[in-house]
Design a protein that fits this description.
By secondary structure, the protein is α/β, with parallel strands linked by helices. It has helices spanning 7-15, 17-25, 35-55, 62-76, 91-109, 165-168, 173-181, 209-228, 252-255; strands at residues 4-5, 33-34, 82-83, 115-127, 135-146, 151-157, 190-196, 201-205. The strands form two sheets. Strands 1, 4, 5, 6, 7 and 8 form a six-stranded mixed sheet that branches.
């Protein structure tokens, strides 16, 4: 059976082949989640509910939206399953950070009439080649038909930094989704849109057919590399403190010791239908 890849799988391999092996080859289960990822999931959940409510003709007030976020946060939070690398920051800091992201987004986009929402958490599955050997899938946070008729692929980011425009113009994730949507929206202009929620900024980009074709080839080459990999060597980076497998990694404990045998401080964070509202 041909394995289906995703942007997350591809990025995990590029960041650290050993982490890829633990997660996707050996399939070692882990129920630990970093607090940053945890907050991001709760923010995504409440924004999804917000747009579903708007689509049903309802306009929940901001206090109700924040209350729903806090309810989702409290219901899902299990201290023993959440890793906080920056131990100097309390849980309340992260809880309030997520609430601020939601509030800023709400105020910036109210009354949410910037376009027609075609889907939230929209699943896309496709192949990069006609034979179906390079299958990909992903989840689009929000799919929109803008007022000018363009199809927009929206992505919510709760990361602490905004990449510069040059990096976004070669970003792989949303461009792959554009390839996947091309059959559903032939000959329609598309835009890639990122919402950097901590900074309350919206940034967009677009791709030419030539850029998409080059991305297709580059991604198939990366998948070939992954399929031929057999060593899965660990790769040191600033992401190691956030890795859910660092307790078993062969290099992680050694890399955190300085020449005097003392533990180094944690690295800075990486650059990175239910009831809706009651």
């Amino acid at each position: 059976m041909t394995q289906t890849f995703s942007h997350s799988r591809l990025s995990t391999f590029e960041d650290c082949p050993k982490r890829f092996e633990y997660r996707y080859v050996l399939k070692i289960p882990t129920d630990v989640d970093g607090i940053e990822a945890f907050v991001g999931k709760r923010v995504h959940e409440v924004l999804e509910r917000l747009y579903i409510a708007v689509g049903r003709g309802r306009m929940p007030a901001l206090p109700r939206v924040i209350a729903r976020y806090e309810q989702l946060f409290d219901a899902a939070f299990e201290p023993e399953k959440i890793r906080i690398v920056r131990r100097e920051l309390p849980v309340s800091y992260y809880r309030q950070l997520g609430a601020r992201c939601v509030a800023d987004y709400y105020r910036r986009h109210y009354p949410f009439d910037d376009g027609e929402t075609l889907g939230t958490e929209h699943h896309v599955a496709f192949s990069l080649d006609p034979e179906g050997r390079y299958k990909l899938q992903g989840i689009i946070d929000r799919l929109v038909r803008a007022r000018d008729g363009a199809i927009e692929i929206h992505d919510y980011k709760t990361s602490a930094r905004i990449p510069n425009q040059q990096r976004l113009d070669v970003d792989r994730q949303l461009a792959l989704y554009q390839i996947g949507l091309s059959k559903d929206f032939p000959d329609q202009p598309m835009r890639l849109v990122w919402h950097f929620l901590q900074q309350n900024q919206r940034v967009s980009s677009s791709r030419t057919p030539e850029q998409l074709e080059a991305l297709r080839d580059e991604t198939m080459s990366l998948i070939d590399r992954i399929r031929m990999e057999f060593e899965f060597k660990p790769k040191r980076s600033g992401l190691c403190d956030w890795c859910e497998y660092n307790d078993r990694c062969p290099i992680y404990p050694r890399q955190r010791l300085d020449d005097a045998g003392q533990a180094r401080p944690a690295a800075p964070p990486p650059k990175g239908q239910l009831q809706l509202f009651s």
